[in-house]
Amino acid sequence: MEDLPSSATEPDGSAVVRLLSYNIRSMRDDVTALARVIRACRPDVVCVQEAPRFFRWRKAAARLARTSDLVYVAGGATASGPMILSSLRAHVEHTEDVLLPRTPGLHQRGFATAVLRFGRARLGVLSCHLSIDDQERYEQGRLLLERLSALNVPHAVAAGDLNDRPDGDTFGLLAGALQDGWATKPWGREHTTRLGDPLQRIDAVFATDGIQVLGCGVPMGLAGVSEQDLRAATDHLPVLAALRVPPA
């Protein structure tokens, strides 16, 4: 399988950034396999969903970052699950964890957000895990767009587990306002549900206009990413995107 473009800073000041979105099911599965998958994708940024949220969650997050050759940036329990990790290539300018309005009887949800700089290129990042309830999910999609705008940067990405398919209202809301990575430049495998489960694309990477999507999809068959590790790591498949971010 042909790889996506490598991380790079280009002569005009733009930056090629590799971003991975991954629901890790609270690290309840094979963490060694999980770290191998992440390392093989060589991400600059990882938008995590279902990061550990309870006892010693910070220790678990630090372990995942360390074994994946990354550093902790934001989120985790303080965002009710979404988390952001990055390589040392990223300079962290700002972070904020956001808890969303909660519907009684449903899980608390939140966003992990950060503004990262790669040389002269600045990128807003939002990691999300939206509700299983249609109405609450749609409202969270609206709040996501507001929060992305509030990062006050010219270029931003939102990535995560939407609990919605491309024909759903919330997915459509986001795809109408942002570039859907897979639809813009498909690469790899489309469907993100666990191997053997019904084929669905419920995890996605979205980018604002001005960012060039160089490729986006599930890295099935990428060198170092084995089917055995994908099955062992968690119950979702990761989404990897390569993005060219213009200079600020």
Automatic annotation (TrEMBL):
Gene3D superfamilies: Endonuclease/exonuclease/phosphatase. One of its GO terms (molecular function) is endonuclease activity. Its cofactor is Mg(2+); Mn(2+). Residues 20-236 form the Endonuclease/exonuclease/phosphatase domain. Keywords: DNA damage, DNA repair, Endonuclease, Hydrolase, Magnesium, Metal-binding, Nuclease. Coiled coil: none annotated. PANTHER family: TRAF AND TNF RECEPTOR-ASSOCIATED PROTEIN, TYROSYL-DNA PHOSPHODIESTERASE 2. This is Endonuclease/exonuclease/phosphatase family protein. The lineage of its organism: Bacteria, Bacillati, Actinomycetota, Actinomycetes, Kitasatosporales.
